[in-house]
Amino acid sequence: MVLAIIGALILALGLFSGTALVMAQLGVGGLEASASLWLMFPLFSVVGYLMFATGARVANFRVLSFGVSIALLLLALGCAVALVADATALMALRGGTGALWYVLLIAGVLGATGAASHGKVAVQ
Hints:
Blueprint: H1 2-26, H2 35-55, H3 58-87, H4 98-118
Helix pairs in contact: 1-2, 1-3, 1-4, 3-4
């Protein structure tokens, strides 16, 4: 159970790192995106997820897994909206668009994979 709790907290830090990358690019909250956020987002997200999966009960795992998938897909959607808004000059981003593309790709792939596998049941 301890492994599941620590894993969920590390996973939350990974999701926060990705959100902070996006918020820094949008100029929200006065955040600055350092290189460590670029590493922490995927690393903490995947390691925290694996730690939680190792220590959680099946029912808890399914609920958190689906919730994380939704959070990642919403993060990817937010990046896509910001990229379109920047491309159409509806808003100006701070710096380039690299961080948004990075988060869009990672969050989109991880979130879509998790959401697609949510409804599958193992055949015995």
